[in-house]
Amino acid sequence: MPPQDNPKKRKPDAASTASTSKRARFPGRPQHTIRTMPTLTAYPNGELNVSRFMRAHENEIKSLEKAMKAAKKGMSRRAFQEVPRELRRRTGSHNPQRVPKRLRIQAFEEAKMDNTPTAKNKSGSGIGKGRVKWLRRQGIEKSRKGRKKRDKNEVTVTAEAGAKDGDAMEVDMAKGSGTQKTAKVKKRKLPKLAVPGMPASRFRRRQLNKTWLPTHIWHTKRATMTPPKEPLWRFAIPLAPATKTYRLTHRAATLRGAVAWDMSYMATIGLEGAEASLVGLLKGLHFAEEDVGRPWQDKGVGKKWRNGTRALDGWIFTREGNPPRRIALVTVIWSVPDHSETAKRKVFIRVHPSAFLQLWNEVIRIAKVQKPSVVVEDLRFEIGSIEMMGPAAAETLSSIFRPVNAKNTAAGSPESIWPTLAPITNSGLLPEGTLVAFSCSDPRLRDPPMTAQALQDTDEEALTETLADWPVDRTMTTPFIFDRKSRMAAGRTMPSQKSINRRKGAATPGEYPESRSTDPQIPMLIYVSRRTNTWTVLLPWKCVAPFWRGITRYPISTGGNPRFGGLDQIRQVSYEHSRPCFPFDFPGTNAGWIWELQQRVVRKHEWIKRPKGKRVEWNTLDFGTGKKGELGDPWACAWERLMPPRSDSEEQQADPEPGASPFQYMLASDVCALLDGHTTTQLPLSLPVLFTVKVSMVQRGVPRDCARVYRLPTNNAELREQWLALVPDSQHSGAARRQKRRAVTKDPSTEDRTRTLAASLLEPPRRRDGPPQAGDADYPRVPDEEDLVGFVTTGNYNLAEGRPTAIANLTLHRILQPRDGIDAGKRVHLCIVREAGQTLGRRPARTMSEDTAAGEKASDGGRQEAFSSDALADLTKDILEDVLYTITHRTVLASHRTEKLLRMQSAATQAESLALANLEPQSLKGAPGPQAAPNAETPAAKYDNGLVHLKGNPLKTTPEIVCPHCKLPRLMHPIRGKGMQHPDLSRQYCKLYPFVTEEGLDVYGNPFPTDMAKSKKERELIKQQQKSADKEGTPGSQDADAADNQGKEIKQLDTGGKPASYIPWHTCPSCKRSLLITRFAQHLEKCLGISGRQSSRNAMAKMQNGSGSGLGNTPLGSRMGTPAPGSQGDGIGKAKMKSGSPIKKLDDEDDEAETPEKKKKKKSSYIKKADRERLAKEPGSLKVKLKTGSFSKESFRDRDKPSASPEKPEKRERDDNDADGAPKAKKIKLSLGGKAEDTKVSAK
Q: Which residue from 961, 935, 932 is spatially nearest to 949, judged by alpha carbons?
């Protein structure tokens, strides 16, 4: 059967089947165009301004080089290969939609040339494919449901005129043909939860069950996001960058650089009402209760906080409950008061999204009972935020967030103070809870960003006075971020990226576009948290993305760009600062308990995914007490096993809500006070209470999440002593080992060392001294379950402290439990940590569970001690003196060592030179024999057959330094500038001169390039003046002449500095010629054939010939043409023949120029004797050399005419006269013995 066409198979193009020639895989692209600028502004008043001229042509040169590179690479790279490697998709090279927009057209062209099908998003049904199909079906279904609802019943609501809120209203319900009237009371509306804005149609389907952050598109290409079907707190949140960032994040957050996070998922609750109502609401929620009333004082931080110039962090509690439960850590910000009677105040409450719903319900309940009422708003999708941390955070933010009309602001205002904060590298220098608010401009107008100018013009005294006085407290006005209209206006007036690009394209190259009155004024508020050491920026939701891109592209003054982080980096930074992170380290709150339940499922799923041979078999764990198996769930923190025993009545009363934590949370400071006997807490001790501690490992072992924390054994005194024996004694730290090493003989003999080595090899290995290590047979076992006190919530190796640490939560009732046979008053700061799945407990760790909070530093002995101001001043003075002494000592030591090495090398060089100079060459010796070894001796060294022995101190014996390469002495002082000394001009010195220190010159004595170049006439005039001055010369004394001569000779010694009117050079990328930058543009036009007379001729020739080959016709504009062969007859005169073709002359000249002229060998006039005899017998021709000075050209022509033969035309006349006009000697060939007509005269 004949083969049939497969309809599913791609059919080739008709154009491809018509031609049998192979199609090019990468077709040629059009020529690149170079944007140029008029150079009229470079010649003001007819003068050449080099700086302006260079700026005018800078863009052309860069564009030309860029176009040449792009044209070179354009034919060898596909579109998807232009994407950076870290941003490429694994299987997206075939789809043009999977590449950036700037490469999408090129990808479509390549797909078309390769005959690759592309999706058209169309279908025969008309609904569409992909997202278009889903959107249209969604709209059809929505309209169908609406029609059904309208057909079912119709409701009409009318209200009487003058009806007030709460009055009865008439409701007419038309159902069929009858009507029914009912009275309905209007209910009071409750605050509604915010709904995210409608996303774009192409992204709508992906945001059904979650919301994207403003920077979601930016993060998806660079970070690991939450799974699409498992969002966190109904947001798609970046978890961590796609690259390794653990150490880089630590360095950027603490040492150099900055880390930024998009924290727009943090919830914001807005409150509006009278100040008394707002204060009553916050007091009802027990805000900042741990500060003992400090926020409500009428002085200090509390007064500034209520005036809207400070931000305050603190815990917020539930309204009801005995005792009230902690909800979350929040930040409360007040608006600046207007000082009017009817003005209302506004408050922002910033809370983590995991605790938002619980706090929202509590705020609504307490807002109902406030008189006058308080308006509550959900601002989650109206206000976004960015957080930054690190030494360069202030520098980056001050450069990106630029105030509008900052030059016209008053002194002391936030707009004028903000740029001066760029040099701050430690947020602790600012006042506590610093808050700054103003309106800033669009950062895209200043893209790419530049390093902050304030870093170069830093005035430390002025900055110190500003931080001490902080005038923002007096000049702060109500921030526009509290106004909904301002927030919405900023989002609506944001220009598109296309309009921004047009404005940047119309601006002068290298400069930013000018601001306009229609540019958006974006309200912004920045506050600094001393608790977390972060800078937080609040701004409208739709304005976050432009500022985020500017932050990530900002060039930090110390190098690099700010890094970005995810949820893992937030936990890492908090962990390294020994600060628990909410909600991950707070299982005593509802948000932390829900997080723990979610992580149990995740850890169990990861364990199930592993192959059975690589899983940990929890049931086989043996702890040495006859019990096997892990305590509780191995992939969970089994807090249920730590619950205190309860009676039946207490269990019936304690019926927690779904998702509520069965534990209460207590601060570590309250626990310390409780252990010291100062009871300040209201929590009954019978309740299960958790508190956060920090655990530091004493020796080896890294604690991980879910690790078990045990106290020292309480029912086994022997086991307790074994664990206490493992604690290293701080009083005997390594002293015995150092003393033992010092006791060893300093210089043992070779025999003793050999004997000791043999004994150590034959001796059996002994157990190392000290306590047993993990894995040894006598290592103590893990305590029982009754000594289990808590679990590790975050553990790893702490880069900030250089040792493993962990953050754990312990139960209070087990810490306070009485211990059998142990003094209750004796405080012990030790615990035992065991990782889940391990049978060995690690060496006891010092904890801060009983005396120090997790956010503080603790000493080994217990509490921290405070120093007086005088002690701190003395300590600071001693440290500064030690630092200065160390720097000076190291500098002097390095200089001394360098100078001594140079003198040693000079002594060796002089001795070697003297030895080689005294060595007698082999050719001058009389008798052959072995060559003597070179030897020489100088006052500083002795040279003996290649070995140099120094004599004494080279700093004393070697007065000067000799170059080892050129063997010449070096100058010890510079020739000009600071520290110069006149050298001995009778000697020759090495060309490696000391560096010059003089204003306007570099270290080599060359002047820096200037932008004022002198014209040719000015340079000639200066040369003439110098020549005339040298010729005239005023007569003076011999001393003056000697000084002048010495100055000239010193100038000759100089390295040859460039003149003050120096103009840089540039190499042409085409012909590799080096030209002045002022003539470079003109050269490019000629070198590339863009302009010039010849280019116009070639163009006209192509236009006339059609094909452009130029064969057969003379180009237009040519003054002389080359006649075709055979176009002239034989009757042409000799004069025309002699004139020749100009083109031929040019070709001959080129050939002569290219081929070197060959010297002709002169023929001797001597004739051999045999030839003379033969010529004498037989008449013939004889060559005779005659002087032709008496003959002229005309006479030679007349004599040559009768004897000229028509077969052999004469050679062209050449003018070979000498420079003085006399003709050169000629060789004349005469025929003797013949007739007159046979006489032949020819000049050779």
A: 935
For the chain, what's the residue count?
1244
CA distance 52 to 45: 13
pLDDT digits (tens, 9 = 90+) for 1058-1110: 454 556 778 888 888 888 877 888 888 778 777 767 777 777 777 777 544 44
Q: Calculate mean pLDDT across residues 1118-1129.
A: 46
What sign does the CA torsion over 150, 154, 157, 158 have?
A: positive
Q: 206-496+516-577 — its CATH code?
A: 3.30.1360
Q: Is residue 1184 helix, strand or coil? A: strand
Give dist(CA 971, CA 359) in Å, integer.
Answer: 79
Distance (Å, whole) CA 429 – CA 468: 9
* Burial zone of 349 (CB within 10 Å; 0-12 exposed, 13-18 middle, 19+ buried): buried
- Tokens 């927030």, located at residue: 487
Q: What are phi and psi of 1074, to 5 degrees?
A: -100, 125
- Is residue 430 pLDDT above 70, yes or no? yes
Neighbours of 470 (CB within 10 A): 16
Map residue 925 onto helix, strand or coil. coil
Q: Is 10 exposed, middle or buried (0-12, 13-18, 19+ CB in 10 A)?
A: exposed
Residue type, 331: T
Q: What CA–CA distances, in Å, run from 489 to 212, 480, 520?
A: 22, 11, 8
971: how many CB neighbours lie within 10 A of its CB?
Answer: 18
Helix then strand then coil, in percent of the chain rounded to 5, is 35, 15, 50
pLDDT band at residue 816, thresholds of 50, 70 and 90?
Answer: confident
Nearest-angstrom CA–CA distance, 512 and 507: 7
CA distance 472 to 434: 9
Q: What is the CATH architecture assignment of 1063-1089? A: 2-Layer Sandwich (3.30)
Q: Read off the pLDDT of residues 924-944 as tens digits, 9 standing for 90 and up.
A: 555 555 667 788 888 889 888
Answer yes or no: are the C-beta atoms of 108 and 119 closer than 8 Å.
no
Q: Which two tokens stand for residue 734?
A: 């390594």
Is 1065 strand, coil or helix?
Answer: strand
| Exposure on the CB side of residue 518, measured as CA atoms within 13 A | 6
For residue 881, pLDDT beyond 50: yes
